[in-house]
Write a structure and sequence with these properties.
398 residues; alpha/beta; Rossmann fold; Dna Ligase, domain 1; D-amino Acid Aminotransferase, Chain A, domain 1; 7-stranded mixed beta sheet; 4-stranded parallel beta sheet; globular
Length: 398
């Protein structure tokens, strides 16, 4: 029996992978910093354990993972986050006894480095925001003048030691030199690492999701975000499958083909009101709304499993359009933020009354829940407990 180890088991993507592979009779083990976890609580997980933090002690993480994969006779590793993928690919000699579904380290690091990606995309004729790569924070204001305000500030690539798990990279906005100076002064990592200054492109987010096998795409998938957390833009809490835009697919393919990609990837764009797409980034790993693709008919985890096992993954490219995925507790946070900031309404957001009504649609047609599922409820119990503890901690300020 093939044994798969899913890392970062408290991620929703890890739960989706565990359910997808476990439901096909594959033995799935789950691991994270601590237990219990979302994926570890699933009925489809056969074993679970904890490992050291890849952020605080990367060497101990690699040592423990190498030891555990041998002791537990793991055949395939499925890392979910950039941190764990990067550490495993950087230490491949320690994992020669297991299969890793990201088989091109150089391509991964090139795509994950936003500075290198912007240079590559421009070379390939892909439209990108006006960007400057800052290697010395003393140059910040000078380079910002070349772009103009408002602008975006973000790390080119986050070094492992700066990660705090689970990591959520923050994008900062600056409307003038004063705000830009404040961002740099208040965030030491901008003084320690290369970072980007970019023009702020206004528009709607769009993504193309794919899996490659030996340098060739197997299938492309797309969805649109209906609600996000925070409401002004962020993590999707309600999304809907849609047809992939041929133009965005073509651009995504141009980039991934060029680097010789192998594995899953999410290519993110911002599309202006005039319909002009700008490449924002490429996530060379699994994404939070993975369960939507599986429910719509694109089982990315199994396709990648087939690929890493040396089989030819096949998909006819079709999937169900209009399928919705709802992250219930994330949607509850969305509603809370709308009620809390009801006077600060983004022009594209519905009224507070409509937001309440939309939240109450618990049995909407073609809507599947991301975590809470009748046949596998324990992950939701784990998530609800953690959510309640965190909410109480924030409420009492402790």
């Amino acid at each position: 029996m093939t044994r798969v180890l899913v890392l970062d088991a408290h991620q929703r993507s890890a739960l989706a992978v565990t359910r997808a592979l476990g439901s096909r009779g594959i033995d799935v083990l789950c691991a994270d910093l601590m237990t219990p976890t979302l994926a570890g609580a699933s009925r489809y997980c056969v074993e679970t354990f904890a490992y050291p933090s890849p952020a605080d002690d990367p060497e101990a993480f690699v040592d423990e993972l190498a030891k555990q994969t041998q002791a537990r006779q793991v055949d395939v590793l499925f890392p979910m986050t950039e941190a764990t993928v990067a550490l495993i690919l950087a230490n491949q000699q320690r994992f020669q006894h297991v299969r890793i579904p990201f088989r091109n380290p150089e391509a991964f690091f090139q795509l994950s480095d936003k500075g290198r990606l912007m240079v590559l995309a421009a070379h390939l004729g892909v439209r990108v925001p006006n960007t400057r790569i800052v290697s010395d924070s003393m140059q910040t204001l000078t380079l910002a003048k070349e772009i103009g305000y408002p602008l975006v500030v973000k790390l080119a690539r986050t070094p492992i030691p700066l990660l705090r798990y689970p990591f959520r990279e923050k994008v900062y906005y600056a409307r003038d030199p004063h705000e830009l100076s404040s961002v740099i002064d208040e965030n030491p990592h901008f003084r320690e690492c290369h970072f980007l200054l970019q023009e702020r492109v206004r528009g709607t987010g769009a993504g193309v999701f794919t899996v490659y096998h030996e340098g060739q795409p197997v299938v492309f998938f797309a969805h649109r975000r209906l609600r996000e957390k925070p409401p002004s833009g962020g993590v999707s809490v309600l999304s809907e499958s849609c047809q992939a835009d041929p133009g965005l697919v073509q651009v995504s393919k141009r980039i991934l083909d060029h680097v010789g990609w192998d594995g899953v990837a999410m290519v993110e764009f911002k599309v202006t009101p005039e319909g002009v797409p700008y490449l924002m980034e490429v996530n060379a790993r699994y994404w939070g709304s993975l369960q939507l693709a599986i429910d719509a008919g694109v089982d990315f985890p199994f396709l990648q499993f087939q690929s890493v096992m040396g089989e030819l993954p096949r998909h006819d490219g079709t999937y169900r359009v209009g399928i919705r995925n709802r992250w219930l507790l994330g949607d509850l946070d969305h509603l809370y933020l709308r009620l809390k900031n009801h006077t600060d309404v983004h022009p594209d957001l519905p009224s507070v009354g409509r937001a309440i009504w939309d939240f109450m649609q618990f049995f909407a047609r073609k809507t599947y829940y991301d975590v809470n599922r009748w046949g596998d409820l324990r992950p939701f119990c784990v998530e609800l407990t953690a959510w309640a503890k965190n909410s109480l901690r924030n409420f009492f300020g402790c």
